[in-house]
Amino acid sequence: MTRSSPGRPPNSVGRAAALTVARDLVRTVGYERVTLAEIAERAGVGRQTLYRWWPSKQAIVAACVLEDVLPVQPMVADSSGDLRADLRAWMADSAAALAGDDSSALFRGLLAAAASDAHAADALEARLSRPIRQAITAAFAAAGHPGDPAVTADILIGALLNAIVTRDPAARDRLIGVVDLVAAPPL
Amino acid sequence: MTRSSPGRPPNSVGRAAALTVARDLVRTVGYERVTLAEIAERAGVGRQTLYRWWPSKQAIVAACVLEDVLPVQPMVADSSGDLRADLRAWMADSAAALAGDDSSALFRGLLAAAASDAHAADALEARLSRPIRQAITAAFAAAGHPGDPAVTADILIGALLNAIVTRDPAARDRLIGVVDLVAAPPL
Amino acid sequence: MTRSSPGRPPNSVGRAAALTVARDLVRTVGYERVTLAEIAERAGVGRQTLYRWWPSKQAIVAACVLEDVLPVQPMVADSSGDLRADLRAWMADSAAALAGDDSSALFRGLLAAAASDAHAADALEARLSRPIRQAITAAFAAAGHPGDPAVTADILIGALLNAIVTRDPAARDRLIGVVDLVAAPPL
Amino acid sequence: MTRSSPGRPPNSVGRAAALTVARDLVRTVGYERVTLAEIAERAGVGRQTLYRWWPSKQAIVAACVLEDVLPVQPMVADSSGDLRADLRAWMADSAAALAGDDSSALFRGLLAAAASDAHAADALEARLSRPIRQAITAAFAAAGHPGDPAVTADILIGALLNAIVTRDPAARDRLIGVVDLVAAPPL
DNA sequence: CCCTAAACGAGACGGTACGTCTCGTCTTTAT
DNA sequence: ATAAAGACGAGACGTACCGTCTCGTTTAGGG
Question: Which chains touch A (3 or more CB pairs under 8 A)?
Fold first, then answer.
């Protein structure tokens, strides 16, 4: 017996569509020029409905980047047993994911949201930084590495942020050097 | 011989006042809620005058943080001869300068401006990242250190950015650990 | 069956309030010093809403004078059978309606709008001149008068304009003489 | 004995140039869009100098139309002895002077200035209406006409105003009919 | 021949209104 | 009950212009 409420059912399709549209807009026009009216129109969703799902524009942008479509894999994934190689691989993936100018713009939008809204910053921490930190912690433990994984996580995340906010391709190219330096000698 | 133009001279007092006021506002209310009208009023300056000096709100915020009042010392300054100690000292200073919640808000405003405006990002690069990179380059050269100073600079700057955008005090406390890790082994 | 659209209905109360407020402002401070911001505030209406209803300030002023509150009765009204007496009565009414300095200011605002904006001029023609011309045409036809009613209408309207733009009370007093001269001999 | 002050003499060339330029601008772009900055630049005159000569923008526009370049001859001029023919000739001249769309725009600018500024209205009265009234008064006296010349003057001036503010060519064509009606029967 | 002083051009200023944009809310009808 | 539609109040944005003020400059007498 499917117990169903009376009334019109929630538009779960529209929710996903809104996030996809928002993501495309952040990519193409940049965070500041994203408009809720345009998200609603393109997603075929009422504008008020967006406010039923998220409390503000910043929240939508943060959600659309983090919800499930983050271009950075949060995990070291398949541990080859070689910690250094794992980190290098992850960083290479992440840098590649950010190589496209549009993905960079997307992540920059998240950064803008986080810089001006504490809730978005919390989301960034919970959905990006913390998983990375935990993954590195696990990897360190598995490898018996003595260092502080949180510090290493800060470095890697910070280097990514720096490469994104600076739109400098050279900084992006140096990311792999960051891993080599951080993970270098004793690992 | 000061050769001067005809016409009323620019109101350099007002210009400085505008920057100071803007800085205070970014600190207290956050970048998004800063209003040019309020900057103008508090600084005793016409609103149009702000647009005569800077092309946009982002530019004003970037300028007010970077112009001359950057809370981060861009230089390793007095080289003690010990590269590692110098970096530690600089990072400690920078972390302290960002310790106050208001300074953190100030820098976060710059970050928001840079994330949503390429000109502000350029200013950030020119006024913050590049000096730091050059200073570290010089310090590495003086100490005969073989590493890539740009990578080290990326790490330090990135760790700062991360500590700022994340409002997490723990991340701030880990900054000194970042230096220890980066400058650790061979120095 | 009132077929109605979805969505919040237009704020017709506010619309009427805006016109009333605009009219009062034109009267008291004069067309040039009327501010849309003040109209909006006093009418309890958003400023943008004014632009949703009218395309410009001139249009609002033209509308507020003409919409339904024109101080000049556009018709000869009750035909007494005596064309000359009807015209005299109408002109006396119109002159009286303009006797107050504030009504004069109101109409002068319309004139300023019409002089600097073709749309306002069209509105003036459609809402004031044409009805008067038509009324006189009808009156001439009913009375079997052979003259060109358009010429007479031009004269009466023009004399009113002259009395208004010149702020001279003597010109106002001569208006009845205008009717006597125009309608004089053969009528 | 030319008593002359020391100091640089007023730039009377620039003054005339400013009026000419202002007149051209009123003609081409309309009163509302005339800019003092543009008048000053085109006339090769400092902006402040305009304010040394006239108290406001309205005053400049009024001056530039009335100063010496009024397109309407204020006089019946050569009295042929036939009052009706004189009036017809004058009205025909005036209508012709206003026939060009640019002259019409010029006069409409004066009207806009007069409608929103009492000083401009005074200038209009003193420089246009009063001379016409006086000329008609003189003509009536010379012809021994019994009517009130002020009323006739009001009618003729008003009809001109009406033809100008209404941009309707038909109203312009009816001007001669106005004269015929006013001057018709007993003259 | 300098000197004083009036008028000047240039141009930045404080202020204010404009018309546009977007936000987040509110109110209606439709599902 | 929830949605789409859509108008709304609020308020910041960036532009334009006004009328003022402050300079350095020109151009004439007057000493």
Answer: B
Q: Write down the residue that tokens 């701030």 correspond to.
A: B172
CA of B113 to C1' of F20 (A): 35
Q: For D158-177, what is the mean pLDDT?
A: 90
Distance C112 CA to E18 C1' (A): 18
- Nucleotides in chain F near protein beta carbons (<7 Å): 1-30
Q: List pLDDT tens digits, range B12-70.
A: 999 999 999 999 999 889 888 999 999 999 999 999 999 999 999 989 998 998 875 55
- Min Cα–Cα distance to chain C from D41, Å: 23
Distance CA A183, CA A147 (A): 10
Highest average pLDDT, of A2-6, C83-87, D55-59, comes from D55-59
The average pLDDT across B136-158 equals 88
C158–D155 C-beta distance less than 8 A: yes
Domain ranges, ordered by start, for chain D:
12-66, 83-182
Report the mean per-residue pLDDT for chain C: 84
Smallest CA–C1' distance to F2, residue: A8
Cβ of residue B159 closer than 8 Å to a chain A Cβ: yes
Highest-pLDDT range among B114-128, C21-35, D68-82, D88-102: C21-35
Q: How far apart are CA D55 and CA D46, in angstroms?
A: 15
Q: Chain B: nearest CA to A186, how far in angstroms?
A: 9
**CB contacts, 8 Å: A168 with chain B:** 125
Record: contact C165-D31, CB cut-off 8 A:
no
* Window C53-112, strand F contacts by Cβ < 7 Å: 53
Work out if A17's Cβ lies within 7 angstroms of strand F: no
Q: Can you read off the two tokens belonging to residue B27?
A: 């600190």
State the average pLDDT for chain B. Answer: 84
Partners of residue A178 in chain B, C-beta under 8 Å: 151, 154-155, 158
Rounded to the nearest 10 degrees, the angle between the axes of helix C36-43 and helix C57-66 is 50
Size of interface C-D (CB pairs under 8 A): 130
Which three-class secondary structure string do you get for B129-177? HHHHHHHHHHHHHHHCCCCCHHHHHHHHHHHHHHHHHCCCHHHHHCHHH
Average the pLDDT over A57-74 and give the result.
Answer: 74
**Percentage, residues of chain A above pLDDT 90:** 24
Residue A68 has pLDDT above 90, yes or no: no
Please compute the mean of the pLDDT values over residues C25-35 and round it to a whole number. Answer: 90
Q: Check: CB of residue D45 under 8 Å from CB of residue D11.
A: yes
In this structure, is the CB of residue C146 within 7 Å of any atom belonging to strand F?
no
**Domain C12-66 belongs to what architecture?**
Orthogonal Bundle (1.10)
Question: Which nucleotide lies nearest residue D12, CA to C1'?
Answer: E7
Long-range residue pairs from A46-49, CB within 8 A, at least 24 positions apart, any chain: A49/A11, A49/A14
Whole-number pLDDT of residue A164: 87
What Cα–Cα distance (Å) separates residue D135 from each residue in A96, A161, D129, D151, D153?
89, 84, 10, 13, 9
Q: What is the DSSP letter of B43?
A: H
Mean pLDDT of A64-76: 63
- D122 half-sphere exposure, CB direction, 13 A CA radius: 4
For residue C108, the tally of other CB atoms under 10 A from its CB is 24
Touch A-C: 3+ C-beta pairs under 8 A: no
Cβ-nearest to C111 among D115, D178, D184: D115
- The pTM of the full predicted model, rounded to 2 decimals, is 0.84
